Amino acid sequence: MGDPLFTVFKKPYELAVVEATHALEENRCRMKSVKEDIGKKRFVIEQREAEYQYDRYLALIMEGLAAEKAAPEVRAKALAEKVKVTAVAINVSKADLEKSMHQMSEAEARTKRLEADLGRKKIKLEQTTTYAKSDGIICNMFMSEGIVVDEQMMLFAFVDTSQWWVQANFKETVLKDVKPGMKAIIVFPMYPDRTFHGIVGQIG
């Protein structure tokens, strides 16, 4: 049980795993870059919004002073214009940030797809070697080393020797005393000197 039965040519499956691993790592690097870019853009927006609030406050003060002839009107207008320009720059930066956020969402979705793809390819690589699920014997061999095989192609028959089933015929008058789970002693006419032990599985 657990012994390897056969192995198909592994190289294509190994290369597929390597390729999928590189694609996943490349996408993760892209995610990291986009994430850093998002952080920088948010910082710029915060700075510009702080500058906007400060200049807007000064513009209101200068506008009031200009109305009272206590400050040059030209300076007040220039500051008001700067506030407008900063507001436009903030909107542009937010639109750019939104674009980066969308790229991040796409990269995250792609990462999940690549992780799933890598997982499938690892499973296929593991399945290049087939192991016996129980003790048994191989018979009816239909393959030899180097032949080309396809999925679902029968290569050999594997007889499970960990469990044996015996079909026995009894008279109906005896069956009433036989129940599933009862211990059984089995003797074959071919091997009269050997006694086998088992359990009644089903009656039908």
Tally of helical segments: 3
User: Radius of gyration in whole Å, from Cα?
Assistant: 39 Å
Strand numbers in spatial order across the main sheet: 1-2
Domain module count: 2
CATH topology-level name of the largest domain: Helix Hairpins
Question: How many strand units?
Answer: 6
CATH architecture of the largest domain: Orthogonal Bundle
Helix content: 55-70%
* Approximate shape: elongated
Average pLDDT metric: 86
H/E series, N to C?
Answer: EHHEEEHEE
Largest sheet: 2 strands, antiparallel
Q: What's the CATH first level of the largest domain?
A: Mainly Alpha
Class by SSE composition: alpha+beta
Proportion of residues in extended strands: 5-15%
Q: Which runs of at least 5 residues are low in confidence (pLDDT < 50)?
A: none
Cα(first) to Cα(last) distance is 31 Å
Give a written overview of the molecule.
The chain is an alpha+beta fold and 204 residues long. It folds into two domains: 8-131, Helix Hairpins; 137-199, no CATH class. 56% of the residues lie in helices and 15% in strands. The chain has three helices and six strands, in the order βααβββαββ. The chain has helices spanning 11-67, 73-126, 172-175, and strands at 4-7, 129-131, 136-139, 157-160, 183-188, 191-199. The strands form three sheets. It has a two-stranded antiparallel ribbon. Strands 3-4 form a two-stranded antiparallel ribbon. A hairpin with a 2-residue loop joins strand 5 and strand 6 (191-199). The two termini are 31 Å apart. The model has no long low-confidence stretch (mean pLDDT 86).
